[in-house]
């Protein structure tokens, strides 16, 4: 698990969590990274935390790689109005995108 202290960096703009192959959970306070613009992640979670990721309103790119257990993205994706790039790769259990994605 990532230390929750990472969420106390409000000016962080890029977070790359792709080489953490054993990461079980993302911090629930991820939404505190108010300046985050680019997020690259790999996790063993089944669902991405809506409360955390839905609060990243300045996010411009979201890349999700090799999340073999991921079955769903969060429903509040329409809140990511600045999102310009969404990359999802090698997530075999992810079979559908949330309905709100059409509003991006």
Automatic annotation (TrEMBL):
Ranges of residues in domain Disease resistance R13L4/SHOC-2-like LRR: 2-89
The keyword Ribonucleoprotein belongs to this UniProt entry's keyword annotation: no
Keyword Repeat part of the UniProt annotation: yes
Pfam families given in the database record: LRR_14 (PF23598)
Record keywords: Repeat
Listed InterPro entries: LRR_dom_sf, LRR_R13L4/SHOC2-like
Top-level taxonomic group: Eukaryota
Name listed for the protein in its UniProt record: Disease resistance R13L4/SHOC-2-like LRR domain-containing protein
